[in-house]
Amino acid sequence: xxxxxxxxxxxxxxxxxxxxxxxxxxxxxxxxxxxxxxxxxxxxxxxxxxxxxxxxxxxxxxxxxxxxxxxxxxxxxxxxxxxxxxxxxxxxxxxxxxxxxxxxxxxxxxxxxxxxxxxxxxxxxxxxxxxxxxxxxxxxxxxxxxxxxxxxxxxxxxxxxxxxxxxxxxxxxxxxxxxxxxxxxxxxxxxxxxxxxxxxxxxxxxxxxxxxxxxx
Length: 216
What we know:
46% helix, alpha+beta, CATH 2.40.50.140
């Protein structure tokens, strides 16, 4: 059985000499990994973090690892790929989703929300330095936690007033909240701790270090 579907790339793992396992998010399969045969430059360029792809998924009765073929970009995302800051954000955000949503997880509406967020970031020309903070807060809602300002207070401490401002502002307004790099990084780490607490897991986000260094 073969199904054509859209996939959001979260992570990749080398598999043997010439194949790769792509960890993805999709409407049809939720959080699931697929085998992609061949690791040439053309294939790897398609598998950048948060790329949105179209693929044919071949299901197998012998293995839970289905195969993805005929990969093609659904959107060029040049607004992201031509910007160092946005690229770093996608590394971070894809890793957060990869480590937060477990294999086999099927969160209703998560794919559509994530797809919309990617296209929004791609389209933004300026004022996106707060994007990843807003993304994390909305991710908590997309995962079903629906935090109130008071729920975040034990995690964000002295930055509670700023976080409350984020939560009561429109998206456009929240992008204009003035923050130093230090405060922005601290709020990001604190909201991650909130997500850790509610998912009952430890989120070791390797790309967080790169994000900290970029937004100083």
